[in-house]
Amino acid sequence: MNILIAEDDTPTRQLLQSLLVKWGYNVTVARDGDEAWRILCEPKHPRLLILDWMMPGLDGPEIVRRLREKEDGDPHYTIIVTSVHNENAVIEALAAGADDFIAKPFNPSELQARVAVGRRIKDLQQTLLDKLVKLEDATATITQLARTDELTGLHNRRSFQQIFTLARNAALRHNHPLSLISIDLDHFKVVNDTLGHSAGDLVLKEFSKLMQEQVRAEDIVVRQGGEEFLILLPHADSMAATALAERIRTAFEQNPGSAAPLPVTASFGVAQLQEGEEEEVLIQRADTALYRAKHEGRNRVVTAEI
Q1: CA 79, CA 270: separation in Å to the nearest integer?
Q2: Tell me: the pLDDT tens digits for 218-240?
Q3: Residues spanned by the domain of 126
Q4: Are residues 59 and 133 in the same domain?
Q5: Looking at beta carbons, which pairs linking 107-115 to residues 24 or more positions away fall under 8 Å?
Q6: CATH number of the domain that 199 lies in?
Q7: Smallest Cα–Cα separation from 232: which of 132, 143, 161?
């Protein structure tokens, strides 16, 4: 652990430094309060401090007050050292935000014990900080998993519903187009029955990757479940959505990946949001267009009628 000593008296500073080094600490030295503050303003600086009460520039209590005002998630542990011997000095130092107080001339054993207390507290704070970081990471992971389809990495239905509501409201409020593509893989059951479910999973992941390569950054690709997918396209009318669906259909037809040589293709239904239309109605119209694509022979794109 690195400890900052701020002490203008040379013999006292040298004694503190030699004792702390003897006890196994690294030491950073400041000869006055202004130098100490410059060190404390650096991104990486000691978090355990031994500050003289009275010294040129900023005094110890003022440094502590400034630190408490700008304290981040990793607080400093400060020990004020002074030759002032009265109760008011102790009260003032602690009121300024100091954690401990020791009078000059100090007993080395007492100083060692007080520094050890500070180190234990800093170690506990660091342990807590590490656990908080891990907790935040775990929370972020759980949130991501709750919004993501485990197999494909696409948005899941729960995530889609939240995004869809916001996108619909924004489209109606600002009068810009919003389109939805409903997708189903044709003859997908043949893959599972012929090659096994592992092969089927691989086809789903490959098709998901293909879609992600074709869409814009703002488009939302969703796995509804099984071999059913959705693509939500903000700022895109039905013509643009149909063109995208056709590009995906053609790319998958030409390169079905692990599904080859089985007759696996994809069918698409496209619908554009109409004025005042509810979310469920838009989904229903896209699904109806998809059913028409299936009924008309599969491996095609059908755009919903207004």
Answers
A1: 70
A2: 999 999 999 999 999 999 999 99
A3: 2-140
A4: yes
A5: 108/19, 111/16, 111/19, 112/19, 112/23, 114/79, 115/3, 115/20, 115/23, 115/25, 115/48, 115/50, 115/79
A6: 3.30.70.270
A7: 161
On whether the CB atoms of residues 181 and 241 are closer than 8 A, the answer is yes
| Residue 227 known to be catalytic | yes
- Residue 200 pLDDT: 94
Kindly tell me the sign of the dihedral angle through the C-alpha atoms of 211, 212, 214, 220.
Answer: positive
Which residue among 106, 140, 174 closes a domain? Answer: 140
Among candidates 178, 157, 158, which has minimal Cα distance to 278? Answer: 178
Residues 35, 87, 110, 227: which is the catalytic one? Answer: 227
- Tell me the average pLDDT of the chain: 92
What lies within 8 Å, CB to CB, of 107 at 6+ separation is: none
Instruction: Give 71's pLDDT tier (boundaries 50, 70, 90).
Output: confident
Q: What is the phi/psi pair of residue 58, to 5°?
A: -70, 140
pLDDT of 142 strictly over 80: no
